[in-house]
Amino acid sequence: MVETLIEDVYARKVYDSRGNPTIEVEVATTEGFGRASTPAGASTGIHEVVPFPKGGIDEAVKLVNEVIAQRIVGMDAADQVAVDGLLHEIDGTNNFSKIGGATALAISIAVAKAAASSFDMPLFQYIGGAFATEIPYPLGNVIGGGKHAGDRAPNIQEFLIIPVGAKSYAEAIEVCFKVHREAGKAIRSIDGSFAGGRGDEGAWAANISDEDALNALSKACDKVQSETGCKVVLGIDMAASSMWNSEKKVYVLRREGKVRSQDEQLNYVIEIAEKYDLRYIEDPVHEEDFEGFSRLVKSIGHKTLICGDDLFTTNASRIRRGLELRAANALIIKPNQVGTLSDAYEAVKTAKRGGLMPVMSHRSGETEDNFISHLAVGFRCPLIKTGILGGERVLKHNELIRIEEALENVKSMAELPSQLTR
After folding, report:
1. Nearest CA among 349, 336, 269, 339 for reference residue 309
2. Quick check: is 282 catalytic?
């Protein structure tokens, strides 16, 4: 009989890809061990849980080592719901403001890893069972803007690609790298002063407009597609909440010093979706504009995925509201937005019941933890968004290649919705 009782819990301060401190937690069971560290976002939604208590990382580490560990030791690591429930009980708030959502997630994931280790199983299989055999497609961030790339970069935060024609994850990510290289060449032809700078997630950071970025990405995709025969489709993350001025009720285009009204923003999104055949559009309007999301779904949702991130923040109650209003047909899953593995799973279940496609996602401030690679497979998410280059991004790609290899005899690429394959 496998022993999964938790024997030890320990936390320490470590650092993310931006050099900012975060928390890492280790959990040991009688027969297993798990370690997890928590990422952080730059463009965050107002409905995300509070990442750390008022005292910051040091207080979070102290809380784990001196308070929370004593409550968790002796519990069954295989009872994830009970452990996550206890974390909510200890915190006692609706947004993890006492112990921090990042603290809770690091504990929650470390417990799941320790349980998987106890059973001598990979995390994806422990979470998803025998039917966790579908490999997601990468949603690659090729050109960056917004909060990820500086004041002279494009207003749109991410210019994305999906290699929908790939037959394996290894092929898919190689195509992403090829497009990234070609996009860099295209940017140099537009901006002679471009020095090859990159943003938080490995995407090119350049002094170019939104239109220039879309043209450069289209050119790069066309070239790589003709060379490899792999179909590649385009997408964007507007991160519109970071552009929204709630007092003046306008979207601020900081690069041009101009503004757009709500209607102008919607019309612009529809216009570029048509012009560049965008198949994926994330956060096209601000995080409280369920109506605007719904209007876009009605207008172009049959041929483009309208994906909510800040709109939903991996929160099941907000997802249910979005389903009632038909405000999206896809959503981002960021476990640190909600605090525990159980909460993230509830968000995925709620989304799938309502016909929303889940996209597993990293954060711009990442760690060397690869748990989202396992969650993408375990939760059966057709897409995974994890940047494109940089050690903390590539290790997640490499882990999916290993998972793909482990599933060699039973794996298949995930089934994609018609908006991506038409």
Report:
1. 336
2. no
CA 243 to CA 80: how far, in whole Å?
Answer: 38
| Residue linked to tokens 């923040």 | 313
Phi, psi of 99 (to 5 degrees): -105, -15
Token pair of 178 as six digits: 């090829």
What would the pLDDT profile of 218-271 be if each residue is shown by its tens digit?
Answer: 999 999 999 999 999 999 999 999 999 999 999 999 888 899 999 999 999 999
| DSSP 8-state symbol, 280 | E
pLDDT single digits (tens) 363-388? 999 999 999 999 999 999 999 999 99
Active-site option among 147, 334, 385, 396:
334
Going by C-beta distance under 8 Å and a sequence separation of 6 or more, which residues neighbour residue 379? Answer: 127, 128, 333, 344, 345, 348, 358, 360
The dihedral through the CA atoms of 52, 55, 56, 61 has a sign that is negative
Catalytic residue among 24, 182, 201, 346: 201
Q: Using an 8 Å Cβ cutoff, are 22 and 16 in contact?
A: yes
Question: Strand 244-245's sheet: what is its strand order?
Answer: 244-245, 250-253, 258-260
State the DSSP string of 308-360. Answer: ESTTTTT-HHHHHHHHHHT--SEEEE-GGGTSSHHHHHHHHHHHHHTTPEEEE
Contact 273, 296 (CB under 8 A): no
334 classed as catalytic: yes
The number of residues in the chain equals 422
Helices (H) then strands (E): counts for the chain: 14, 18
Q: Report the C-alpha gap between 413 and 409 in whole angstroms.
A: 13
Distance CA 223, CA 215 (A): 12
pTM for this entry: 0.97
- CA angle 384/56/22 to nearest 5° reads 35
